[in-house]
User: What shape does this take?
Amino acid sequence: MIRAYKFLMRPTTGQQGALAAMLADHCSLYNGALQERRDAWRHTSKTSVKYGGQSAQLKDIRAFDPERQGRWSFSSQQATLRRLDKAFAAFFRRVRSGEAPGYPRFRGVNWFDTVDFPKDGDGCRWDSTPHDPVTRVRFQGIGHVRVNQHRPVAGRVKTVSVKREGKRWFVVLTAEQAHPEPLPETGSAVGIDLGIASFLTTSNGEHVANPRHGRRAADKLKAAQQALARFPRVRRDQRTANHQRAVDKVAQLHGKVRRQRLDHAHKTALGLVRAHDVIAHEDLKIRNMSRAPAPKPDPDQAGTFLPNGAAAKAGLNQSINDAGWGVFLTILHAKAASAGREVIAVDPRNTSRTCPQCGHTAKENRLTQEKFHCVACGHTAHADAVAATNVLRAGLVRRQANPA
Assistant: This one.
């Protein structure tokens, strides 16, 4: 089993400059490799350049530019080229499947925030001073960097990554470990219904409030973005001190909302995993749910469009993204796998329109966002609790049909 750990680093001022230079040089390598692929396709009879050919050029690149490329780990540079190769593989996969292709783009220094080291001990060393009470990680070209290790690392460290978030630097580890002991069985199964009014509702009738972190920070974020918009758009090295402070303020607010959202998702998922052996949830297509409505051309007047509810849908999309359903479900699956729990995704269609008493399905059963009233048998309940109950039943049926 592979498990990830993320720790805050405490680099010195000089080490911060070296870490930033490492990111900038890897970003330059990424953009140069992307440019080579574009030129080969456009100007050399549509020739495709692969990872193997670009990796073979690394030795010459390092010899030609020892100050910028030669001082960093060879393996980390290979990992950067593999990242570009994966971006092109995903691009061609989307082309074949008929999705929006999204051709790989050049990365600015601010958008290139991670350097990967594929193997601990090759260009990096985790806890390189085991006899020192202070945990340190060593990187080639940077030295020993202090780490705020807030929990022990179980298992053998496989990969090490450096990540920049705003002004903070983190080290991300992946460790291989034996499958942990599962939690004691509780004999309980639950279905959950994700929503906007309540973050989730269980089949037991419990509601978890939606914290709406993004909406609560909207006023502060709006003011910070307005202050940033007063400065002209210039390159990073041309920013004044006030301009840089405005940029950092916006980044800090976004980072705080992201951390709050992650904290809420972790705590909610952990509570469900500890209390239930089986958890059923709706298999939501969140990307489709938050997609903007298609425009409606006016057939009577060329060049004009009919109302399509885009403004109302934009508000709903913002609420969906603020809730962070996708992040929560990813965390829930990871925690369940670690605890030996079972998570089942079921078809969400008609879960809130089907009566749990008589099975009658009709649009009229759901009177409002909260009220459910069956037009056939008269059963009344909270609409989200009805949906969670139906999700649980569908999950148990699927579990019996496909035993582990």
About this structure: Residues 2-176 form one domain. The chain has a mean pLDDT of 92. DSSP finds eleven helices and 16 strands in the chain.
